[in-house]
Amino acid sequence: MTVTSLNNDYKEIITSRRSVRVYDPAVKISREEMTEILEEATLAPSSVNLQPWRFLVIDSPEGKSTLEELAPGNKTQVTTSSAVIAVFGDMNAFDNADEIMSSAVEKGFLPQEIKEQIMANYTDLFGRMPARAFREMILIDSGLVSMQLMLSARAHGYDTNPIGGYDKSRIAEAFGMEKDRYVPVMLISVGKAAKEARRTTRLPIDRIAEWK
Asked: Hey, which CATH number is domain 22-192, 3.40.30.110, 3.40.109.10, 3.30.450.40, 3.10.490.10?
């Protein structure tokens, strides 16, 4: 495959993405393929590579029934999609920093002495960072992975819809997760569109960008 064809494929993925609200309930995404989609999504960048995102893949009848109560205004997406992925930010994400950087050392991406210096710097930094600032940071990072997840799903031939209309105050506990640790970011429904989604327009670039 040529570079030009790769670029055209990527452009097609971006321009063909739609927010789909009605899916074909007969289409089920296997756990293996969903894992591949998530792996591709996690190639997104994050602050100091903390990878603070956490995913809850809700695809069972029981899980969807619980979610329906939390997102009554988005019941169609919940019930007809192959799965709904709840994206969270982990307030304890720094606990994994040493593991992440040690892995980079093992693979030859990072010298051990540099890793130790970075860990010392980051331990000091995040030890002083207010919880609110850390929360804002992981929300941004989780937003990046969410967009990449939707593009990855599109590359696999599936449709998505980002959902913000749900009870964020109860979702973590409803699924047995620590409420104070896991910050809800968004829901993403995934499946095959049952009907063509409504097209939308965008503001022209000269209205939203400027050069200096």
From this structure: 3.40.109.10
pLDDT digits (tens, 9 = 90+) for 125-158: 999 999 999 999 999 999 999 999 999 999 999 9
Beta strand pairing call for 182-191 and 53-58: unpaired
User: What percent of the residues of the chain are helix, what percent strand, and what percent coil, each to the nearest 5?
Assistant: 50, 15, 35
Per residue in 10-61, pLDDT tens? 889 999 899 999 999 999 999 999 999 999 999 999 999 999 999 999 999 9
Cα 150 to the chain's mean position, in Å? 8
Q: What is the pTM of this model?
A: 0.94
Domain locations in the chain?
Answer: 22-192
**Distances 105 to 32, 101, 123 between C-alpha atoms, Å:** 29, 6, 18
Ranges of beta strands (E only) in 10-65 are 53-58
* Size of the chain in residues: 212
